[in-house]
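Customer ticket, subject: "Can you confirm the structure for VCBS repeat-containing protein?"

Message body: Hello, I'm evaluating your service for our small team and ran a test protein. I'd like someone to confirm that this is what the system normally returns, since I don't have a reference to compare against.
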Amino acid sequence: MLFQPRLPELQALANAAARLIAAAGGTPSEIAALTIDDLKLLGVKGVTVDNLPAVIAAIGKTTPDTAVDTVDEIQTVATTAQTAAANALAKISNLAGTDKADANTPSLDDYTAAGVTGGFVINGSSNTKLNVLSASNAGDVNGDGLQDLIIGSSDGTTGGSTYVVFGKTDNTAISIDDITNGTGGFKITGPVSAGVTLGVSVSSAGDLNGDGLSDLIVGTATSTNAARPAGAAYVIYGKAPAQTMWSWVPALWTRA
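Agent reply: Thanks for trying us out. I re-ran your input and got the following:
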């Protein structure tokens, strides 16, 4: 009876330890189950809301029979992750307000150290260079309930190109070649005209035509129309997956 009042605390400690062991080298759901309170119960110090994702990610990369055998080893893993997260967050924060790349520009590793997880890579290729001029949230262009991306690129073609990348829930990389071929998105081809670059600015335009799909607005640096030499902006209506792609013709957009 003397120990009965302590039973809930002991049970909470046991549960925290079980979640930690499951998280070490475990599945994303097991890793995500860890909380600040769990780590505090186990004696881990310095964990905050800001660095918790980085600490949990670091624990998730360990194995149950090595780096998380003792509280001291857990603390070492957590402290290393906290330091890396603080440095990475400082670098990411310093990027705000600057328009030039330098040695302090954050890398993908910095975002990982800061606890940013998930997402996917969009790869260029030897056939299709991806030189990003602009990028923006595109809204839900294809009506599947996921937010999409729009990327403007001077991809080696004379007139530039714009790519719409459909949102997805997995982390697998995609290729611009796939997008060009209509898998996972579609390509909007610029005019084959010297001095015209499509995609210098891109953005969602909301639902302009009331069909329930997000529409796009894409800017060019100049225009092929002599009456508008200073540039032009073009609106592209959203489309369901079964519809055809878009391509450029002089002075207007048309279905291919």
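A couple of notes from the result: The first strand starts at residue 122 and ends at 123. Residues 129 and 251 are 26 Å apart (CA to CA). Feel free to reply with more questions.
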